[in-house]
Amino acid sequence: MREKSVALVQRYYAAFNAGDMVSFLSLLTDDVAHDINQGKRESGKAAFANFMQHMNRCYREQLVDMVVMASEDGTRAAAEFTVLGTYLSTDEGLPPASGQTYRLPAGAFFDIRDGRVARVSNYYNLPDWIAQVGG
Questions:
Q1: Which pLDDT score is estimated for 131?
Q2: Cα(103)–Cα(81) distance, rounded to whole angstroms?
């Protein structure tokens, strides 16, 4: 089970890096819980799709140096990676965007159910990101 969960998370991030939102969203349960870094929890695939539409408008990101781990039973997984990004469009409450680039360590934790992502909790250092984009 561990290997299947690691492969699922790797497919999740491969679809993210490819900008393939159809494949990306297909890897989620319909009731997926999404814990936004320093934000609230959103529930459901539609909310996640709206979040990703917003993110893709404001940011262009590639995730590199990926390490994925999973529990023996495959119900939990974690990923550590580096975000290479460009700030494309000003996001509400954040510094103005002017194409600034950033490099940010990040991580995520997953619950996996029936071969799909049932929860993802993302973590990164927001003050570090703000400093990098000149806030």
A1: 96
A2: 10
Determine the Cα–Cα distance for residues 93 and 96; give it in Å rounded to an integer: 9
110 forms beta bridges with 77, 120
DSSP string, the chain: -HHHHHHHHHHHHHHHHHT-HHHHHHTEEEEEEEE-TTS-EEESHHHHHHHHHHHHHHEEEEEEEEEEEE-TTSSEEEEEEEEEEEE-SPPTTSPPPSS-EEEEEEEEEEEEETTEEEEEEEEE-HHHHHHHTT-
102 DSSP β-pair partners: 85
Question: What residues does 123 pair with on adjacent strands?
Answer: 107
pTM for this model (two decimals): 0.95
Q: What pLDDT was estimated at residue 64?
A: 98
Sketch out the chain's domains with CATH numbers: 2-132 (3.10.450.50)
Token pair for 5 = 């969960």
